[in-house]
Every structure is written in C-alpha cells, then in structure tokens.
C-alpha cells in the first residue's frame, strides 16, 4: 500500500498493522536497519498510530523495539519513539507492560539523553513524562530530573515550561 505522511494515511497504515500484528516486526526492521529514511519515517508513522490504539501489539517485539531505539536518528522518528516510551511507562506503572531492568535502564538513559540534548520540544516533553513515570525505578532519578528541569526552565519555550512546571510540582509534593 502506497501512502503519504498525511494523518489519514498514517491512521490507515496503523489500522492495517492492528489487523495484521505481524506487520509490526516489518516496521521495526525498517526502522532498525535505517537504510531508507523515507521508509523508516513512514514505518514509524504507521507504528505510532497502531501503538496509540493498542500498545499490546508491541509486547511480542519489545526486543527489536529497544534495539531500534538505540539507532534512531531523525526528528520525526525520535518523537514517535519518545511518545511510545511515554505510553510504555504509563502501562508499566499500571502493571500491564512488564519491563526487564535492562529495558528500564535503556529507557532512562535514552530519555535523559533526549532531555539534556538540543532535541525538539515534543521529544523532551515525552521524555520528561517518561522519566517522571519511572521516577521510583532508581533513587537518583528524582534529584537528577528535578535538576535538569530547573536548569532548562528559564530558557525553554512555553510547551517545555508548562510540562516542566507540572512535573516539578508533582516531584516536590
């Protein structure tokens, strides 16, 4: 199926993945192999729509997802993976998406890297929410997250400031 990057086409591809969950592995392979940037982005768009509808389709392919997380480079794909990590962290809190310690550690290190680096605001916002959700995984997360948010708060844009203030308020309660 040929599709553009329009929301309607992304949703259509996400729906196709939901009907045929084995397609998730193909999307992740395209992303992991990163040979064709257009295919990587479109695969990520389709995966994003499917995962937003049903995060469970990712469970059988967690290993490949986390391998792909280590190689993504483009801004749209980072945003999609950051959103997916946020969704995973919410599900992990509820006990519906189990994570091994190495997976948690990779999420934490990736999200802190994105929070510290000059990434797009959406990536940073999703990363800070994920870090907040995993704050009890290790005792150093809360002070480090607090320090990073406070350090960046004065020079950040409105979207970053809004989410950072919200999270800082929760961290201090």
Question: What would the keywords be for this entry?
Answer:
mainly alpha; 73% helix
Fold topology:
Layout: H1 7-19, H2 23-33, H3 37-53, H4 62-69, H5 75-94, H6 101-116, H7 121-133, H8 141-153, H9 158-172
Helix pairs in contact: 1-3, 2-3, 2-4, 3-5, 5-7, 6-7, 7-9, 8-9
Quick recap:
This protein is mainly alpha-helical and 173 residues long.
Q: How would you describe what is shown here?
A:
It is a single chain. This protein is mainly α and 173 residues long. It has helices at 7-19, 23-33, 37-53, 62-69, 75-94, 101-116, 121-133, 141-153, 158-172. The radius of gyration is 16 Å and the shape is globular. The N and C termini lie far apart (50 Å).
Distance between the termini: 50 Å
H/E order of the elements? HHHHHHHHH
**Class by SSE composition:** mainly alpha
Give the overall shape, derived from the CA principal axes: globular
Please summarize the sheet with the most strands: none
Low-confidence parts lasting 5 or more residues at pLDDT below 50?
Answer: none
Average pLDDT across residues?
87
Strand residue percentage: under 5%
Rg (C-alpha, Å): 16 Å
Total strands: 0
Helix content: over 70%
Number of helices: 9
């Amino acid at each position: 199926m040929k599709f553009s990057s329009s929301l309607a086409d992304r949703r259509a591809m996400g729906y196709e993945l939901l009907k045929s969950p084995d397609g998730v592995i193909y999307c992740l392979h395209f992303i992991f192999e990163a040979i064709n940037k257009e295919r990587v982005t479109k695969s990520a768009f389709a995966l994003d729509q499917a995962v937003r509808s049903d995060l469970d389709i990712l469970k059988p392919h967690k290993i490949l997802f986390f391998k792909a997380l280590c190689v993504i480079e483009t801004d749209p794909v980072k945003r999609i993976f950051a959103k997916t990590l946020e969704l995973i962290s919410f599900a992990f809190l509820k006990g519906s998406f189990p994570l091994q310690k190495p997976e948690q550690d990779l999420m934490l290190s990736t999200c802190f890297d994105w929070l510290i680096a000059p990434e797009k605001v959406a990536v940073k916002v999703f990363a800070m929410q994920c870090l907040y959700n995993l704050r009890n995984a290790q005792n150093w997360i809360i002070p480090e997250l607090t320090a990073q948010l406070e350090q960046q708060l004065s020079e950040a844009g409105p979207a970053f400031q809004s989410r950072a203030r919200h999270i800082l308020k929760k961290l201090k309660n």
